[in-house]
Amino acid sequence: MQTRFILINTSHAGNVGAAARAMKTMGFDDLVLVAPRWANVLRREETIQRASGALDVLEGARIVATLDEALEGMTHLCATAMTPRDFGPPTVTPRQHFETFVQQEPGPGAAELPAQGMAFLFGSERFGMRNEDVYRCHVALSIPSNPKFGSLNLASALQVIAYEWRLALGGYAIHDATVPAVLADASELAGMLAHWERALVSIGFLDPQAPKKLMPRLNQLFNRAALTQEEIHILRGIAKMMDQSTKP
Fold first, then answer.
1. pTM score, two decimals?
2. Which of 20, 141, 199, 202 has the most other CB atoms within 10 Å of its CB?
3. Beta partners for 124?
4. What is the DSSP string of 42-101?
5. What percent of the chain has pLDDT over 90?
6. Rounded distance between C-alpha atoms, residue 119 and residue 162, angstroms
7. Where are the domains of the chain?
8. CATH of span 186-245
9. Residues 6+ apart with CB under 8 A from 246
10. Contact present, 54 and 23 (Cβ < 8 Å)
11. Is the model's pLDDT at 24 over the cut of 50?
C-alpha cells in the first residue's frame, strides 16, 4: 500500500528536512508539500542539514500548488488535528485507528480497505489544519499528549504517526549484532562445581565430613542460571582466587 505524507503550507524549512528524516527512519519516501512558504525549500541549507542523511527523500519530494494535486491517487485520508471539528470526521488516536483499519476484512457491512494509498495530512506550524481540509478526511488522528501542553513540533508529530503506521504494517525485525553466547555443557559445569567444592573446603565454608546438600543445591542453582562458557571461566577464576587466598 502506498503511503504519502503531505505537508500543507509549511513555514519552516528545518521542519521539512526533519520530516524527511522521520519518514526515512520508518521506511517511507513519498513526501508532498502543498504551497510551502519557500519555493526552494527542498534546496535550502537548513532543510538539507535537518534531513541528516535523508537526502533521497528530499530529492524525490514534490511541491504542488493545491491539496487536490497532492491527494491524487490516495483513497484513505488521515488528518492530524488535536481538537475535534464540529461536523468533521471521527477523532481517534493513531494506534486505535490503525489497529481497526488493518483488521478490517472486506465483506457485507465492512468498510472496504483502500486499494491505492494512505495519505497523512499535516497543517501549517502556526495554524494547524484548516477545517475544510479536515472535512475531506476519513479520520482525524490525535496523538495522546499532556492536556496542558499538547503542542507537538511538526516533524515530531510526523515521526509518531509514521512509527505507529509502520508498527501496524508489521514493523521491522530488530537486528541483533551481538554474538550469541555459547552455553556451557554438562562436563564444563561438572568441572566448575568440582573446582568450587575444593575452594569452598579450602576457605572453611564446606566441611567435607558433613557436606549436607550444599553441592547438589549449588548444582541446581547453576542449572537454573543456564551458564555460558564465559561465565564458567569467571566462576572458576573466583574459585581459584578463593583457593589461593588460603595459601601462605
1. 0.70
2. 20
3. 128
4. GGSHHHHHHHTT-HHHHHH-EEESSHHHHTTT--EEEEE-SSPPTTS--EE-HHHHHHHH
5. 67
6. 11
7. 2-168, 186-245
8. 1.10.8
9. 202, 203
10. yes
11. yes
Give the model confidence (pLDDT) of 118-175 as tens digits.
Answer: 999 999 988 888 889 999 999 999 998 888 876 789 999 999 999 999 999 888 877 7
Q: DSSP characters for 202-216?
A: HTTSS-TTS-TTHHH
Closest among 100, 16, 1 to 57, alpha carbons compared: 16
Residue 16 corresponds to which amino acid?
Answer: V
C-alpha cell at 207: 566441611
246: amino acid identity, one letter: T
For the record, the C-alpha cell of 28 comes out as: 517511507
DSSP 108: T
Cell, residue 165: 503506521
Q: What fold does the segment set 2-168 form as a domain?
A: Alpha/beta knot (3.40.1280)
Here the cell at position 172 is 521491522
Count of residues making up the chain: 248
